[in-house]
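Minimal example, chain plus magnesium ion.
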Amino acid sequence: MYESIKREIKARKPKMAICYDFDKTLSPDDMHTFTLIPSFGLDKNIFWNESNALAQDNLMDKNLAWMYLLLRYSNTKRLSIKKDYFNKIGADVPLYDGVSTWFGRMNKYAESKGIELEHYIISSGLKEIIEGSKIASQFKRIYASSYLYSADGVAEWPAQAVNYTNKTQFIFRIAKGYYEEYDERVNNSMNDADLTIPYENIVYIGDSATDIPCMRLVKSKGGYSIGVYDPVKNNRDNVYQLYNDGRISFYAPADYRARSNISKFMKQIIDEIAAREAMKTERKVLEIPANLYNTYKTTKTVIDSLPKNMKPSIKKKMSSELDEMKTMIEGNIE
Ligand SMILES: [Mg+2]
């Protein structure tokens, strides 16, 4: 029996997750500023000034403000905004070098180390645009702002507005395996051993201040955070500050090609997770006889302290069960 449990423990494949911000982390542009707003024939500066003023004057969440403004412009300009329209825009969103092949390379590397790797997006951008991008199929889930659509598929109302602090709930969802946005069990307490993905096996990649709560959460729970900067602009203020403030474990240019720094760091992280998981597995195997020994000792103490006048047949039955338990424990014990 012990052998089969041992085999089962050793056959379990540990999981890890990489969570990505989207704008300026995987894509060099901001999807609204460079793609969505101009597609409405609007000037990006005018749009953002108006959206930020709306948020400020009405104490609104900034994401809810742009989502509202976009709906209002679609009405005044008599442009219907449909899911398909957003998806189509997503197909043209540019990606940083190496992004399109990154997932396959990292999955293969993790696989070679016995790790099952999953990818997730956690972005304040529009989910439907990301879903239209070339890399959408690489993600197990895309958590982002999204609209509620009418039966005709026209955007009517915000369904999700993802901002910097509520981004963190998705880290808990991924760790606990409660993926649906409405599932309130995400707040249930869970033992580390029961997590779908342990926090220390989670990596978060982002570029800016809006990623700080996620970076901090992941890092404080033993995972890894990586700050990226645009390789062409090479402006490193953000990453230096994030690094000095202890928010990130690594920083690198957003260059995802095979020989890039971020590839090297990610492989080092995978190596460390694989080594730690191998040790966890060994300890789980060691735990079985040690736990059984504990049960044996406790049961023995109970039997030894049974009253003298107890029916001999009961005492005999318990003693034989104790002997059987002893045979299941590997090695010699007193
Ligand atoms: Mg970003």
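Residues 21, 23-25, 206-208 surround magnesium ion (CB under 6 Å). The chain has two domains: 15-28+95-280, 281-328.
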